[in-house]
Design brief:
alpha+beta; RNA-binding; 4-stranded antiparallel sheet; 34 strands; single chain
Length: about 800
RNA sequence: GCGAGUGUGGUGGAAUCGGUAUACACAUCAGACUUAAAAUCUGACGGCCGCAAGGCUAUGCGGGUUCAAGUCCCGCCACUCGCACCA
């Protein structure tokens, strides 16, 4: 064995070995438990960044560990290949997106191979491949038939100068990123998925995801935003004006109505009220970031119109207000200024009446319009007042009584509302999967027949300006209607790229099946047992995937309810306390580190520097430290192997020092197993192995010293192999082992090595550490107490006091309470 | 504004179920080797007092519970993230 650690040679040899043995290809196997480990696939932007390295090293360590546990492990890799950056690059460098993307994939694949990740490359997929997106198109037609995909008008950012739709990130301060002209909102036809049909289940099933971070589940819960209330009608000139409220118990305190500026009633009132028309015009043009909206001044204007309260029969004014959202509920609200903060501010500002209808027991506060109270919205310990026959009830009592009355009168119904909106899946972009629809003047939107799929995206394109080239390609869009045979036009919109990433995890299970979207093998691998990726996908990607999985299930393609059993959200990689980014100029290129130190050093550092779910502060010095550890490990093994083959271990004959090292070996195995499997804290696992190495270094060259060291080195190499697989591959051979380390099971703990004759215990007096003592492992409680009281330093502290109590924590400490 | 999370040496972090705070590294300092430097090896390394033994003190701040609190509870402060007029 070479004395010098030569990472380049070692890593190349290990990677060649894996390649020639096809080491990571897997098939279905009913004799072993399956384990599907997946890291979020990358967008092929050009090169790997440190975030990728961290993400994929975590996934690889888990995969390799699970394999050593005897599981049938699938770990695939692929490319989230559609998206806007390819179009931007095309415009900038005049290279077609398909070519640019393919070149990036070649480069990044080579980098992933250099890092030694244990992927089954036979299952590699790229979402821009027609073999992939054809199934997405096929599935869309199925959803269309079920009514789960539909078309409606929706707003987009429109640049009049460039005659094109802009993505949100292409709008900078309200201006087009290309021509700096103002961007306007325009309504166009778009395709949607009815995710709201699954809102209830998506919410309820979050409770099943016990191995997901609570943070992610909370974010999804809030995003879905379920609320229970009543939808009720005020009478407006004989037609119902519908409002939604979660507080029907305060209905008798509703003193006016407020409608959104886009509401039909507002438009109607504006027809013969120029001042109002101007107000509406101004307010609909204000297009600010959502963050500013919450703090924006609340403005409104009286329409002069009035509506009739459904229970009191009183006439209430209708106002237009800038804070009412057209997109939630019915775009109109009943205003209860006595018990809603916004309504209160609005009523005070415009002099509208305020009626208190909820009182708090034991609070002698009497309402007047100039003061406000901290329990105005409480639902507990309150009583309804000023509400006629509903007086005297608590929140739920009034809620039910009023809801029942409205339902009996036919003026309202209980309703559950969601904040979640249907998912808009069409994009007016080129570099995406074509939506398989043909628009016919006679038949409307007709799906492309299955035998005509896929609708292939042309890849030989030229960009003129920013619009999609598809819209200038009659050879693409001119076609016949599959229904009537008449002249028709193909849809030129493409799918949102979240479509591809919502089901790729399932496709890896049968990536090479050309006759079906998913099959029995795909269902064998699903669901993903361990998913690893960035927290930035906590809502959209993970919610869409969960939705898609339920769609696939309802189509009979998978038999599970959820796609990802266990989720690990890895933290960001920071430099100088900030996220690495090109604009800040604080990036670190993984390639230069691999070239300098080797992949194992980079892998080791990224796993050692922080627990996986925390942010990781980059440190060039600490990378060198990781490299230094590998060099030391290599030297220790080289020195060990240079001598004669070690004698057989004779556990019974070991002296205390040798037994201590051997105990440390087996304690470390126990700890590292727990850190890898249950805790997923690889940093502490590495620290424990480093400690063991420090202990092993103290052994000398006697027969049994060498035998103890041989056992420890075998364990160390096996335990580190998920994180630094190349060096461990080489060390395993150097230790004289002929089996491929990949096929060697995880080391077991020898319980007999863990026993001790004596234990060091801490002795406290009144909770403060005063002494340490060695006690026989089998000492009785009384003997331990006795020994503790005899310690010199302890006697000093209890000399002038009476011992009241002695607490013994077996094997750990004694606390003497004395006063 | 609402919600979630974090706060421990010079730095990254450890302390898993309330039980010996600062493991493992990085940096720094000292020593060995060297003509010298790098590399490598050995040692020191929270603060204060002390020759030492040892003592006092310390986990953002202030209280509390407990024999015992970085860990649990209450109230503040700072930072990070998410949502953001959802009626």
């Amino acid at each position: 064995m070479d004395e010098q650690y030569d990472p380049q040679a070692i890593e190349q040899a290990a990677q060649e070995h894996w390649l020639t043995h096809n080491s990571f290809a897997v098939q279905m196997d009913d004799t072993r438990e399956k384990f599907y480990c997946l890291s979020m696939f990358p967008y092929p932007s050009g090169k790997l960044h440190m975030g990728h390295v961290r993400n994929y090293t975590i996934g690889d360590a888990i995969s390799r560990y699970q394999r050593m546990q005897g599981r049938n492990v699938l770990q695939p890799m692929g490319w989230d290949a559609f998206g806007l950056p390819a179009e931007n690059a095309a415009i900038k460098h005049n290279v077609p997106p398909a070519k640019w993307t393919a070149e990036n994939i070649v480069e990044m694949r080579a980098q992933l191979r250099q890092l030694g990740f244990a992927y089954d490359w036979d299952r590699e997929i790229a979402t821009c491949d027609p073999d992939y997106y054809r199934w997405e198109q096929w599935f869309f037609t199925r959803l269309f038939d079920k009514g789960l995909a539909y078309k409606k008008q929706a707003e987009v950012n429109w640049c009049e100068t460039d005659q094109t739709v802009l993505a949100n990130e292409q709008v900078i301060d309200g201006l087009c990123w290309r021509c700096d002209n103002p961007v306007e909102r325009r309504e166009i036809d778009q395709w949607f998925f009815k995710i709201t049909d699954y809102a209830e289940e998506l919410l309820a099933d979050l409770d099943k995801l016990e191995h997901w971070p609570e943070r992610v589940r909370t974010m999804q819960r809030n995003w879905i935003g379920r609320s229970e209330g009543v939808e009720l009608d005020f009478d407006f000139n004989g037609t119902p004006l519908t409002v939604y409220t979660t507080r029907p118990d305060t209905l008798m305190g509703a003193t006016y109505l407020a409608v959104a500026v886009q509401h039909p009633v507002a438009k109607q009132a504006a027809a013969d009220n120029p001042a109002l028309a101007t107000f509406i015009e101004e307010q609909s043009r204000v297009k600010v970031a959502e963050a500013d909206m919450a703090t924006m001044e609340k403005l409104g204007m009286d329409t002069g119109l009035r509506a009739v309260h459904p229970l009191s029969g009183e006439s209430v004014p209708i106002w237009v207000a800038n804070f009412v959202l057209m997109s939630y509920g019915s775009g109109a609200v009943m205003s209860v200024p006595g018990h809603d903060e916004r309504d209160h501010a609005f009523a005070c500002k415009y002099g509208l009446p305020i009626v208190q209808v909820v009182d708090k027991a034991g609070d002698d506060y009497t309402y007047d319009a100039t003061t406000w109270h901290d329990w105005y919205a409480d639902k507990e310990g309150t009583t309804s007042i000023n509400s006629g026959e509903f007086d005297g009830r608590d929140f739920q009592g009034t809620f039910d009584a009023i809801a029942d009355r409205l339902e009996a009168l036919g003026r309202g119904t209980r309703k559950v509302n969601f904040r979640l909106r249907d998912w808009g899946v069409s994009r007016q972009r080129y570099w995406g999967a074509p939506i398989p629809i043909i628009n016919c003047e006679e038949c409307g939107s007709v799906t492309v027949p299955e035998e005509d799929l896929p609708v292939v995206l042309p890849t030989e394109v030229e960009f003129e300006g920013v619009g999609s080239p598809l819209k200038q390609m009659p050879e693409f869009y001119v076609t016949q209607c599959p229904n009537c045979g008449g002249a028709a036009e193909r849809e030129t919109d493409t799918f949102d790229t979240f479509m591809e990433s919502s089901w790729y995890y399932a496709r890896y299970g049968c990536a090479n099946n050309h006759s079906a979207m998913l099959d029995a093998e795909a269902d064998y691998w699903a669901p993903v047992d361990q998913y690893i990726g960035g927290i930035e996908h906590a809502i959209l990607h993970l919610l869409y995937s969960r939705f898609y999985h339920k769609l696939l299930r309802d189509e009979g393609l998978v038999s599970s309810d959820e796609p990802f059993t266990r989720l690990l959200t890895q933290g960001m990689v920071l430099k100088d306390g900030a996220k690495m980014s090109k604009s800040k100029g604080n990036t670190v290129d993984p390639q230069s580190l691999i070239d300098r130190f080797g992949a194992d050093t980079v892998r080791l550092f990224s796993m050692f520097a922080a627990p996986p779910d925390q942010s990781l502060e980059w440190s060039d010095e600490a990378v060198q430290g990781a490299n230094r550890f590998l060099k030391r490990l290599w030297k220790m093994a080289a020195a060990h192997c240079a001598g004669e083959a070690p004698a057989a271990l004779d556990a019974a004959s070991l002296d205390d020092r040798q037994r201590d090292v051997r105990r440390k070996t087996h304690e470390t195995i126990a700890k590292v197993s727990d850190d890898y499997g249950r805790r997923q804290t690889f940093n502490t696992a590495i620290a424990a192995v480093m400690e063991l190495c420090n202990e092993v270094g103290k052994l000398d060259e006697s027969d049994q010293d060498r035998a103890v060291r041989a056992e420890a080195l075998h364990a160390i190499v096996l335990m580190l192999s998920p994180i630094v697989p190349h060096i461990c591959h080489a060390l395993w051979q150097a230790l004289g082992e002929t089996d491929d380390i990949l096929n060697v099971p995880w080391p077991g703990v020898d319980e007999s090595a863990l026993t001790r004759d004596s234990i060091e215990m801490a002795v406290q007096v009144n909770g403060k550490l005063r002494a340490r003592m060695d006690v026989p492992a089998d000492a009785a409680r009384e003997a331990v107490e006795e020994l503790a009281l005899q310690q010199d330093n302890v006697r000093k502290f209890i000399a002038d006091a009476t011992v009241r109590k002695v607490i013994v924590v077996p094997g750990k400490l004694v606390n003497i309470v004395a006063k």
